[in-house]
Amino acid sequence: MRRKVNLAPLLFAVLLTACSPRDFLTRRLATDLISASPELKSAQQFALRTGIVTSKDYPSPEYLVLQHHGWISATTIACTPGLAPPPCWNILLTPSGVETVRALIPEQGEKSSIALPVARRELVGVTGIARQDNWADVDFEWKWSPLNEIGEALYSRDVRYKSSVGFRKYDDGWRIIESAVHPAQTMDGALKNAEPIP
Fold it and tell me: What gap in Å lies between CA 28 and CA 46, rounded to an integer?
């Protein structure tokens, strides 16, 4: 008596091993790739300028926030030759500003411009995927995650932003587009062109 052998499970197992998890652009894969992108993970730097600055740089909203928190003081002064437009401002760190800034940077000595890491982007979630052949546009939401007191003052955790980034399917699976070879946006472009969600 001959026994019938069901080859369907064996064929299914062979097909599964031929496909990698990156072959199918799911929201989970898109979330993993966006979360791992250097553009999303890099810290936002704020360039704090002290000394004499023009009215082009001061009173910017960021400097007004720092002054409101008591970390800087600013007085109007006459502009030196070559600085325009007037009025000019002399920006100084207050004692509490020195303590706050000192904790954020390694010892750099006296500098008129200090780069402070203040916030990092945090992915909230993927909101949609539109695929066409080997290309896809992935919509996602993100928010700022402040890294310190200055970041808390400058970036709200409550505001969410929406962005769209391009993906392309390669022989080893889906990847975020690194350069604009397709009308879709790169990750850097997606973050720069983000819109606040009302």
Answer: 32
The domain locations on the chain are: 25-44+119-196, 51-111
Residues 153 and 72: beta-carbon distance below 8 Å: no
Backbone φ, ψ for residue 85 (5° rounding): -85, 150
Query: What CATH number has the domain spanning 25-44+119-196?
Result: 3.10.450
71-105 confidence digits (pLDDT tens): 999 999 888 888 877 888 899 999 999 998 888 87
Token pair, residue 52, equals 């004499």
Q: In what order do the strands lie in the sheet with 88-93?
A: 51-54, 88-93, 72-77
Instruction: Tell me how far CA of residue 105 lies from CA of 82, 100, 112, in angstroms.
Output: 31, 10, 14
- Torsion angle in degrees (nearest 10) through CA of 39, 41, 42, 44: 100
d(CA 77, CA 135) in angstroms, rounded, equals 56
